[in-house]
Records
---
Amino acid sequence: MSFRDHIVSCNNYDPARVVPLTAGGARIGLLRRDNAAALRRFSDVFAVGSDEVELVASGDVAAVSRAIDIVVDALVADGRVAKWRNETFDVAPRWGMPPVFCLDRGAVPFFGTRAYGVHLNGYMREGDGDTLRLWVGRRSPDKQIEPNKLDNLVAGGIGNGHGADETLVKEAEEEASIPPGLIRHAVPAGAVSYRMETRLGIRDDVLFVYDLETPSDFAPENRDGEIVHFELMPASEVLKRVRATSDFKFNVNLVILDFAVRHGLLRPDDPEYLEVATGLHRPLD
Amino acid sequence: MSFRDHIVSCNNYDPARVVPLTAGGARIGLLRRDNAAALRRFSDVFAVGSDEVELVASGDVAAVSRAIDIVVDALVADGRVAKWRNETFDVAPRWGMPPVFCLDRGAVPFFGTRAYGVHLNGYMREGDGDTLRLWVGRRSPDKQIEPNKLDNLVAGGIGNGHGADETLVKEAEEEASIPPGLIRHAVPAGAVSYRMETRLGIRDDVLFVYDLETPSDFAPENRDGEIVHFELMPASEVLKRVRATSDFKFNVNLVILDFAVRHGLLRPDDPEYLEVATGLHRPLD
């Protein structure tokens, strides 16, 4: 196990296995070829070609979203998609552009549409200020994805119509009882991006990363049942665990590596330094 | 002018215009096709094929370096290379690997070997601690590259046999009179990488980035004549100037953008945020 292994496994995407999903000439998703083939019978919504799938449903965002939701229900019946039913994501060619449609979160990897999330590194300084401790959460055994794994202080997907800062404030309250007066000191510190094939399709993920130095009288408390326990761990120990194990949720390894690089916990003389420093930000084509 | 323009111009590399330079089966450089052709007459040192140039000079590092230096002298006579004569860089397939040879800095773009540098963002906090000012240097009119442009507090290439931290300490002393007791508080914060075609060839550059919060009684003073003047500028003003002008040295724009992303001076609602956050770390193939 090495830092590199986490980066490689989050970037196991192989373009040869995928065709683009387009709308109005712009790419909005990445369909694995078996998933593309499963869309042939919905010819009023998708035109499936050999090298491209085109969204052909017409109407406004609500109408297109409804048409696609009917397809998603059929895919659920086929066992190809596990619908979440409580969370939809905006689908657009680029961050900040108006959405083409909204999609149930459970169907996002099937279509390979880009998904955005927020991750918060909570930390405290010790002693001389150069030694850091990181807040680490343990995911609930009931989570659909990566139960029981270790996690950041706060993390969540950006639902349709919401922004990054806004999602952070909401998730910080629900997941760790961080009050608005504290979370507004969180510093946006970049984005981690990766592209990964899973059993369901393609995860084309962008994580907006924030850092928050927590005061000595703060202790996180989970409210939504998604995290069962929080612990403050020496950052050096967290990093050792990332290097040697898969104890952390797959993409949290990348967020922690990004934190480690930005805060000098990893140094240029580490043999993996450049691979980590340049491997966490997959270009967004 | 936009942030994006700086990233694009530092990554104008076109693989179709280049062939790999290899040694022992590993790529060690990127030769523009006209530069590759100019090596045909040195058949005891290079085997020039249509899709690859292979280093064939044999011997230890010193012997290969001497053989290549003779080629470089001939290229200087042809006007293809401007030799520096006071600085050589290690050439290796990867950072941290033993060098294959050492090369005069002036010949690095001709061969397109990867070059490593250190850049230091010097900053001070103001008022509530959330407002930052950045130290900005003005390059001497006598500099060979980008005279009179604005620069980081400290920057320099990593010469053969030296490490990143070591180079930072040396350059900090020469360029800004930063004493060893202060520079050891500099935090390594990642790497900026880009690949750029210039008049001379290919710049395949990796910049190790450091941040240093300077104390209120510190003022930088240049010793080596490379910087004529230092100024403390509000970070927000520096960022505006990066967005609107080419006042900063070409690659310093990227280092400042990286600083801006890491310190929350740029935020996720900026339309260029993701392009900047993912565009500063070209993967090292």
---
Amino acid sequence: MSAATASSAPTKTVDVAGTPFAYREVGTGEGVPLVLLHHVTAVLDDWDPAVVDGLAAERRVVLVDLRGVGRSGGTTPDTFEAMADDTVAFLDALGLGEVDLLGYSLGGIVAQVVAQQYPDRVRRMILAATAPAGAEGPAATGATLQAAVQKATEQGKHPKHFLFFEPSPAGQAAADAFLARLDERTADDRDTPISDQAVGAQLTALTAWEQNTSPAGLAAVKQPVLVVNGDHDAMWPTETGTLRLAQLLPHTKLAVYPDSGHGGIFQYHEVFVRQALDFLRD
Amino acid sequence: MSAATASSAPTKTVDVAGTPFAYREVGTGEGVPLVLLHHVTAVLDDWDPAVVDGLAAERRVVLVDLRGVGRSGGTTPDTFEAMADDTVAFLDALGLGEVDLLGYSLGGIVAQVVAQQYPDRVRRMILAATAPAGAEGPAATGATLQAAVQKATEQGKHPKHFLFFEPSPAGQAAADAFLARLDERTADDRDTPISDQAVGAQLTALTAWEQNTSPAGLAAVKQPVLVVNGDHDAMWPTETGTLRLAQLLPHTKLAVYPDSGHGGIFQYHEVFVRQALDFLRD
């Protein structure tokens, strides 16, 4: 339990079978903890403080770097099955039994696999800006990232302007606001940037997710799931990712935000926090 | 122009080629007027004051009873082509050239046809809880209404509890709040309830919309369109209605609200008003 905010919470480590995993805790809620799983290339500093603090108003929120990511030790595995194992090993190390999961993008895939491999550990899930197995997008993530970095360099912007937000004035203003929030951290223990090894392993896992994995197991997911995204996701298309995911899962609520993309939950952070808390509170 | 609110605006009439059409105006915005087109069985009193007043904060908002509906004269036609003609004849009578349209449910179909028959009269459209031609739902509207009335009678509730809102606690609380807002009207000139003739004609038009009409013309709609609904529409299913409409129209933004149905824009009226004004303001 912690009275810290997303920007002031210290980075802690916990021993997971001999490997230190970095994590932060925000919020003092007494209910089932809410564990946040990050996107490709992300470390703890990439979580939007507006979302984390908004959720922490009612929940104990736990952010984690999985194996090999940021300040966590070890080597990032290149399968989602192994990332799901690591997620549950981390829960064990913290003494957390049943949790809620918020999986964003790649983290949303990890959450899908946790729910299938360890159904007893998940009470509810929020799957944001993510895609079911076999959907278009994940296998092209490496190329999409490279193109965005090149465009960003040419225009003197951050790649997330293009990856996460619409080119509209509202979208680009939301990108500026989001990036400014990421700079709010006052604690001096910023996370370590992700390594090339970790990104490479994540991209390998994403390629297999699109090309060699079946979404059939989603039909057995008994948990209620909030599926959420912007309406024009430039990384993993909303139609084949978000909307299809909502169709494949048996118990879903769907939220789609207009004029927004992969970062829709950050652009509409106030709406998202309200809808997420409503969903988790039921 | 009017400083009235939705609940205090007087009901006026304008002569449309010899037939009086009832309408109300709210808001003093200087921009393109926003014309609201109503759902099956609805009269002017059925518009949510929270939505009307929210939109009127920035826009001149015009509500209309089409031919034969509520206090308007004449006989309701049984085709959407004729309802679209009537809509434009009403705009002519008020001296309105280009307008924005908010079409809700049946009104969203009228708006789709206006945009195709009179493309020069429409700047932007918001299509809420509606469906493209050929989609499942509209032809069953009569049966759906009857079943809801029976269920409502048995449970001592208003049919809109079942037609517009989810059975969840949040959905039913939203229904209560919505119905209470409809009772806020202080002006003593409440509209006349809809006639059996008008409802019958509307249901005939809806059946033809599902069974004998093609959505192909939507591909030529050049206007930006905000397509919006709740995620579980019990009347015209969200997937085959809202999501399909967003796919068929070339220039769309999509908004979907969780744990809500046909009345999603009323349940999430604050979010909807903000998103609608953002969309219209661009």
